[in-house]
Amino acid sequence: MDPREILRMKRDGERLTPEAIEAFFEGYLAGDIPDYQASALLTTIFMRGMNAEELVPWTRAMLESGPSLDWQGIDGPMVDKHSTGGIGDKVSLPLAPALAACGVRVPMISGRGLGHTGGTLDKLEAIPGLRVALDLDALRTQVAEVGCVIAAQTAELVPADARLYALRDATGLVESIPLIASSILSKKICEGLDALVLDVKFGSGAFLPDVERGRELGRTMVDLAKGFGLKAVVRMTSMEAPLGRAVGHGLEVIESLDCLDGGGPADLRELVLVLGGELLASAGVTADAQAGAQRLAAVLDDGSARSVFERMVAAQGGDVEVLHKRERLLTAPHVMELRAPSSGSLGFAECRHVGAAVAALGGGRKTPADRIDPGVGVVWTCAAGSQVSAGDVLAQVHHAGRGLEQAEDLLLRSLKLDGPAPGPLVAERIA
Ligand code: URA
């Protein structure tokens, strides 16, 4: 099929047929369709959208561009969580081992941070020696022996997504609901899951701040997963304030350890229980999500989740000693105190500025090749909604001298001390 005919179809508002979609992916992956024609098609999809009849074959073509994980011989339900990303979102670190401690298996393929949010892989790599680049055999072995793995996308898995995502990123075409849904779901379906929970963030720190757009993405992903026979549940959660108190890679590992020891900030624990509870219920391990949450609370409190986390870190080559001597994760040479400019209740006008502040300190990247400093970051001294007086210490800023002035300015601009109390963390459920 002539690629210009595929382009014409979408340009003129016709539905892309499964044959046209197949022809596009075949030609693009073989190198017969150049990037300029692919980006023209992505642009028309960005403008015109894709309906469910197009989205299923589109996602299938992406999925079939590489192998899927095969769990033959390993029993127990396979589950995973995906988050659209937020500031201080370290949920995966305690959640994956807590789920494994409840008897399900978690083959979590995760991402790196780009822009204002930090990536799970970067957080894990704050643990010295820890490897996230695992091949398919290593993934399989670890899932069988430890019960969970958090690793990077391999070159074999969904190569079509890696290529299309890079093209979208370079051409300003990321924020398209059908393109985001197919990109996320193709990578999750290839994990061979029995259940998936999707944490779709809204609010000023979210990738899609507008709650309506978040809902549309959530609904699209749940319906798309159904088209592949995968049970998916969306929880919409607020990113009006950073999650937990710590933002920055090593600092977030420390906070995750607190959660794995049965403590840590209430909002982090709540999200682990809510998202994990959904998965245990969908996988048929507990009667409902509430019973699932109770089961997870028990494994956080009795040390079994923590012990799986240590086994996961050890299996991936990480230095387990650091998990007992947390001060070794505090590698930034300086700590500055950020003080409240006025009295009021701690709130955030622009939560994304907190992520940008950590990036300015060296904890983020502008391009995928940039190196990040795992030691820098911010730890808020109190939870959003707490009363503070002018001059109180609001946050400890861990830094290495770089970008401090810019970070301080961004942190002060992120604040809103005279606003209303924060809304609920967990909003609606889409299933
Ligand atoms: N995350 C993804 O994996 N894909 C997108 O398209 C956007 C966010």
What does this structure look like?
The chain has 431 residues and is an alpha/beta fold. Helices cover 45% and strands 14% of the residues. The strands form 4 sheets. A 4-stranded mixed sheet has the order 1-4-5-12, with helices on both faces. The radius of gyration is 22 Å and the shape is globular. The two termini are 37 Å apart. The relative contact order is 0.14. The model has no long low-confidence stretch (mean pLDDT 95).
SSE arrangement, N to C: HHHHEHEHHEHHEHEEHHHHHEEHEEEHE
Secondary-structure class = alpha/beta
- Trace the largest sheet across and list its strands: 1-4-5-12
- Work out the strand percent: 5-15%
Portion of residues within helices? 40-55%
Short description:
The protein is an alpha/beta fold and 431 residues long. It is built from 17 helices and 12 strands.
Throw out a few tags for this protein.
alpha/beta; 4-stranded mixed β-sheet; binds uracil
Any chance you could write out the topology, listing elements then pairs?
Layout: H1 3-11, H2 18-30, H3 35-48, H4 52-63, E1 79-83, H5 92-101, E2 106-110, H6 120-124, H7 136-145, E3 148-152, H8 159-170, H9 177-189, E4 195-202, H10 211-227, E5 231-238, E6 246-247, H11 249-260, H12 266-282, H13 289-301, H14 304-315, H15 321-324, E7 334-339, E8 344-345, H16 352-363, E9 377-380, E10 387-388, E11 393-399, H17 404-414, E12 426-430
Parallel strand pairs: 1-4, 2-3, 4-5
Antiparallel strand pairs: 5-12, 6-9, 7-11, 8-10, 9-11
The chain binds uracil.
